[in-house]
## 1
Amino acid sequence: MEENKNTNLEQGILEAAERLFLEKGFAMTSTTEIAKEAGCNQGLVHYYYRTKEKLFEEVFSKKAELFFSAFMNVENEELPFREKLRRVIEVHFDMLMKNPRLPFLLINEFTTNPGRVLSVKEKIKNLPESVLAKMEKELKEEIRCGRIREIELVDLMLMIISLNGGLFIAKPIMGAIMGMGEEEWERLAKRRRDENVRIILQAVEG
Amino acid sequence: MEENKNTNLEQGILEAAERLFLEKGFAMTSTTEIAKEAGCNQGLVHYYYRTKEKLFEEVFSKKAELFFSAFMNVENEELPFREKLRRVIEVHFDMLMKNPRLPFLLINEFTTNPGRVLSVKEKIKNLPESVLAKMEKELKEEIRCGRIREIELVDLMLMIISLNGGLFIAKPIMGAIMGMGEEEWERLAKRRRDENVRIILQAVEG
DNA sequence: ATTATCTATAGATCTATAGATAATGC
DNA sequence: ATTATCTATAGATCTATAGATAATGC
């Protein structure tokens, strides 16, 4: 309990920050607000994390890693290419369902402050290095054997991320413009999970 | 020249605001910055547009309309469904090529401030009302005749927007994570234009 | 003693407006 | 006279820190 109490607020601030950064992005979230959400005074936010930037980076790098985790996790499973591809899409989609604001956070911060991102790159170097290389190799092999059509890895990943991410990114837009409600969106999401798999599998076929 | 001089700064401020809002979004752009970019003092921004919000809305509603214009423009052309669909995708894509920051602006503002968006809805009501209904009717007819598979209009539009928009949205991310440069991105974009058409046409087939 | 928490505040913005001055249209 | 432009500033943040006080670990 003491140990708990010790890390209590430090952790609480981190979690409050996570919620708010995901909701509104870096620029529109103030440390005052984070403190209020965490139930402490504003000074404490800086006591534990020194600057808003440092606090943000702690949240952000975890989230960025999470976004790409689907690709890394499935890559280690032993499955035929087509099944592996299906799994990647599904795992990625399910992760987004649990973290629906994640695409927004990534887009917002990579777009408005690419500089802040450089430090994050270090933490997700696993992806670019080992995993991407392995995926590329597998993809090339499939193409060589004529089991799928000629396609670049970056094109494939972009398709997955665009189709999966688009659903979550467009949610507020569809809500505002077409007046789409939560229930209707849920039904749409349910359809899209299978459809995205289908579309991508179809798209890599000869 | 006088007339020009008259609207000169008013227009100049609007254009400066447009550039900056597209670059950094509403929250991260200050009226001081807009004034500097427009080459006048900060007071003038408020003289012409009263509040930052009003100035933003002027920019935003134009841009939101532009984003959906592809759907409206092509809808009026007389073409068989499949050709019309191809045209929509291509016209939408080409518009994004000319306005690469547009998807970011829409996402950012619809997500962080859905309230501000309500006033915009008025201005793009053309889409929801006449055009969407017409598209829906055509789509239903194609399905009824068995020329394409069963699909909802919203699914189709989401696919188009996700695939086309994703390329532009992911640009800074790919730049930061994979170190993708401008030239490489251009080549990718060239491929994606045709691929997106192909994928979507394939996806609506039986 | 050390660490956690709070209060108070300096210094940097930033938005919006008031009031002065210059330019333009009758 | 009216409209455009500038300067100056009030008032509201917001971040980061300093210094006081309370809690905890020896």
## 2
Amino acid sequence: MIKDIELLKEKGLKVTPQRIAIVDLLKSYGHLSISKMYELIKEKFPSISLATIYKNLNAMVDNGFVNEVKIIGQDSRYELAKASHSHVVCKECGVMEDIMLDDSDIKDEAKKLSKFDIQSSSITFYGICQKCATS
Amino acid sequence: MIKDIELLKEKGLKVTPQRIAIVDLLKSYGHLSISKMYELIKEKFPSISLATIYKNLNAMVDNGFVNEVKIIGQDSRYELAKASHSHVVCKECGVMEDIMLDDSDIKDEAKKLSKFDIQSSSITFYGICQKCATS
DNA sequence: CTGGGTGCAAAGTATTTGCATGAAC
DNA sequence: GTTCATGCAAATACTTTGCACCCAG
């Protein structure tokens, strides 16, 4: 917790109760859409404004503190920035999981093929989770 | 051309001049955002409605005839569905290129790690294209 | 104190919908 | 002739902005 607060400060963002709540939610849920975040945060801050969430998430993204993950067929999710990783999304229930996989080979291949100076990647798999597969 | 028309028919979509124009544009440009598509298509159909583009792209996506590609920091692009491939996007000028890379290893790894029945993947790299790098 | 953050309401933008007309089959 | 597509306008959804007030530093 204290670490997050320090990080916010380092980025020049003031530490407000609303921001702490946003960070805490991202920590416990991993990834959240804006509407889900709004819904959850209102349990603690009934009077919070959607605009506050937009402004804060945008500020955190601009500071590299949070990442947006775009998904086909669903709202974007937001997550705390951390070691590069990939995602798996269930087409049925929408659940999203992080997976750590080594993308260095594929990234090298992409560099060769495209001649781009590649800086980052976004890798997302879509399928059916075990829970949905067995019900 | 005739092939596309047949494909539209097979999907149960009537072949209208507007739809042919959409498909032709996607063919020549590879990937287009909605607003770019609107801009280009108005050269041929000054009276076309944005709603027509939305409705048609949505219908084509629903039929698996067109795919949406989501990109961080830019509007989604649409492309004709074709063999699975990946994308490279320039953070500077926004240009997008297709690359064919073998993602079977990484996909197997994702299956193992996630226990999902993985059906498709979305792989996009971000960086700087050669043109922007040298200017 | 002082500057930035919050919440509200309003403005802006993006996307979808309903419907009368018109075109494809 | 029937069915579906088009284009317009209206409705809805999503996101940003302006501003008065408030709180963190």
## 3
Amino acid sequence: MAPPAPVHPRLRFAPSPTGFFHVGGARTALYNWAIARRLGGTFVLRIEDTDEARNRPEWTDGIIDSLAWIGISTDDPTFEGPYFQSSYAGAHIEAATRLYESGVAYYCDLTPDEVQVRAKVSGKPGYDGFSRDRGLEPGPGRVLRFRVPDGTTVVSDLVRGDVEFDNAHIEDFVLVRGNGTPMFLLANVVDDVAMAITHVVRAEEHLPNAPKQQMLWRALGHEPPTWAHVPVLVNEQRKKLSKRRDKVALEQYRAEGYLADAMVNYLMTLGWAPAGDTEIMPWSRIEAEFRLEDVNHAPAFFDLKKLSAFNGEYIRMLPLDEFIAACDEWLPSDWDRAVFARMAEHVQTRVVTMTDVAPMVDFLFLAEPEIDEGSWNKTMSSEFARALLRDTIEAFAAVDFVAAELKTALEEIGERYGQKLGKAQAPVRVAVTGRTVGPPLMESLEELGRDETLRRMRAALDRLEGR
RNA sequence: GCCCCCAUCGUCUAGUGGCCUAGGACACCACCCUUUCAAGGUGGCGGCACGGGUUCGAAUCCCGUUGGGGGUGCCA
């Protein structure tokens, strides 16, 4: 016997467009991508376009855009598609006809209500095979059902091992609706066969469909693909992430300033861990090390705190010039980029997401600092604050206006009042930046300049003295 | 109800019979550093769901219990 021809690995990712791209879908896409790349195969994008999705092409564009953001780009040679399920409608019906003619599928004229009544009477859930041997011809209102054989179906799953299903528990499922349109299950298998898909990597919720699809593959005359059902992502209630309750749109994380690299890295650690003591690693290593066989079996909690930690880490890993470049789109266009660039190193260690960047340095660019009343009340109420402000204005007017000198001057003034610099800087900080927290003060003042610093301090003093 | 999947610190995980008085990461706490806040450094808290087996030896294998999740459409 001749050795089997080598098969080119083809992994399909088949999202249904719904107006946003789910983080769980992103992880599944990444799994497919990693395996396709490592095996030297192809990542096939096939959109399960519904009627609604067809009327909203922007949904599909959104998916492609989101995939590109996480590094899965249509420009990459590994990428193939996008294809659309609807464009294979003819093949779906053709396959159904073949199945009917070969006797593995049959027509049934029972309505859904009638099926339900029979189930209730017999006490057995689901369709009972009523029309199996009635020899019905195709006709309006009649559905085509698959004749599930006796025995068991074993689904060999890369992450779960062999999963055995007793066919007695699988009803004769519908292939074609009464109106003649094919069901998703059929369409899916026919498309996979047509595209020579070798690996089906998808969420665990599809596992119960696998035996049905596997039977369909065989009925169509093909060996089923390699299956891999990966666990779902859950919320703190341990429920599958839902659009209503949870923040699941990848686009939203992008808009909130999460870095694609951080998101990708974090997503890959849910259900899988690289060898060694560090989870932070570049995609190139993940791609080389990721194995479906090593994916965990239990659902994983999508932890925003840990994502944030990853994001902060990734921001800090950026070379300074890259960080500055990355900040550009997050800053108002009229802010002086040179000023920001000089402060950037102080910003980089203090932000969690890119949306934190602008508010951290806004006082340098605004005509008036935005005074946070809580901060004001906390630091300005004492007599010490007023006196210190007065002395500092005087000192700052005379000193060489650079960070080191400013620091020395403030330190001296603090000593007069028995306060360390940590306490002494607070009123100045609130007067100039409007808040108790922020980038290093002296450096900020130097950047602001003597005139503006003194003006803000005098304004604060005026307010304190009721002027 | 029925079918299927799952079960290690609060969370994500390492662990595939002896290397485990169970390792790492996030979170949390303490200390150090310090110009606020961060960042960084050091240390700490904290877990094999339960009960039976198998074995010289079990987090690891088997059975049961409990608990969680998913699926049960002429949806995708």
